[in-house]
Q: What sequence folds into this?
């Protein structure tokens, strides 16, 4: 059964035009594992990492776990059996993925946690964006626009440490407004697997239950924001309630132009993929990691961490950020939208 995973879920990603006569032993083999492609960003993460790794002389095996942590563990074992020198993993589950890290460490394989910190296990590197700062940025924008009123907080999966950090960022900014009763959080919850459909159902229930107007929905990513805005549209409230998001997904950027979503938190993933590939190769070669390293404890050890900085994108700066970086083109964002 496990042997079938390599056929179904792990694909060779080869340099365009690469001559097949080159043997695997002549190149460094790296595994790159994504939890799903439900979130559009993970395909972008994959491509950014793979492209940079190719430049550095590596081949990459990519595995998609379809949100199944047991499948991801099986895929990781298959990668190890296929001779990878390192595994870069966006964990489906930050607790159960510790089994992957422990097994990799026992075999001398480098393990790099990408975006999500794996708990209670040995790790060689963690590379992420500052999600506590992301939460602060969303809340700062919200209170700058709506310093009073009823707020709803829709956070990501409660097993995801990033969701917890984002909510902590919200709380830091909201605390004085809550204590003075200027802002009232009428509802808050975590959404399993960051599901847009579950966010939609949840927001419908909120709108049906609370008769007082909602001023702001602090939402932790763009996928869920899409579900929330769909519920708002059904009540004629889209564009009247401030909605946040994160990841700069194309539909979110289009909603920002339309005015139904006010901001997204942009995490320049080209920078993240490049840094992950470069430092993975350094680990494999026994070289010193890049200088901007901090330490984050995962319950077992202080993990060397590269912490990148996110930024707010709204209708005023979308051209100077997302479009200027080539993350999405102007044509893609404005397609079908009157400017």
A:
């Amino acid at each position: 059964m496990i042997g079938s995973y390599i056929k179904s879920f792990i694909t060779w990603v080869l340099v365009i035009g690469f001559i097949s006569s080159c043997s695997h032993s002549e190149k460094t083999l790296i595994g790159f594992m994504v939890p799903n492609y439900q979130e559009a960003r993970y395909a972008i993460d994959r491509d950014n990492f793979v492209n940079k790794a190719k430049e550095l002389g590596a081949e990459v095996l990519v595995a998609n776990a379809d949100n199944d942590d047991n499948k991801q563990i099986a895929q990781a074992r298959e990668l190890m059996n296929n001779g990878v020198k390192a595994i870069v993993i966006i964990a489906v589950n930050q607790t159960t993925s510790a089994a992957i890290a422990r097994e990799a460490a026992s075999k001398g394989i480098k393990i790099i946690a990408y975006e999500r910190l794996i708990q209670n296990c040995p790790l060689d590197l963690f590379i992420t964006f500052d999600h506590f700062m992301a939460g602060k940025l969303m809340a700062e924008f919200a209170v700058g626009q709506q310093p009073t009123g009823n707020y709803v907080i829709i956070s990501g999966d409660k097993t995801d440490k990033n969701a917890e950090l984002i909510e902590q960022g919200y709380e830091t900014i909201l605390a004085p407004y809550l204590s003075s009763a200027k802002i009232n959080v009428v509802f808050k919850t975590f959404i399993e697997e960051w599901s847009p459909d579950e966010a939609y159902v949840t927001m419908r229930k909120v709108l049906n239950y609370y008769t007082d107007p909602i001023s702001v929905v602090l939402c932790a990513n763009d996928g869920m924001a899409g579900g929330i805005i769909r519920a708002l549209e059904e009540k004629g409230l889209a564009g009247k309630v401030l909605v946040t998001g994160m990841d700069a997904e194309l539909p979110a950027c289009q909603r920002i132009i339309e005015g139904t979503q006010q901001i997204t938190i942009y995490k320049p993933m080209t920078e993240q993929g490049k840094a992950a590939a470069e430092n993975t190769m350094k680990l494999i070669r026994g070289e010193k990691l890049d200088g901007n390293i901090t330490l984050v404890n995962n319950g077992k050890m202080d993990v060397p961490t590269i912490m990148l900085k996110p930024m707010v994108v709204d209708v005023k700066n979308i051209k100077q950020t997302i479009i200027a970086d080539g993350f999405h083109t102007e044509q893609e964002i404005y397609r079908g939208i009157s400017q």
Q: What stands out?
A: The first strand starts at residue 10 and ends at 13. The domain at 2-123+268-308 is CATH 3.40.50.2300 (Rossmann fold). Residues 161-179 form the longest helix (19 residues).
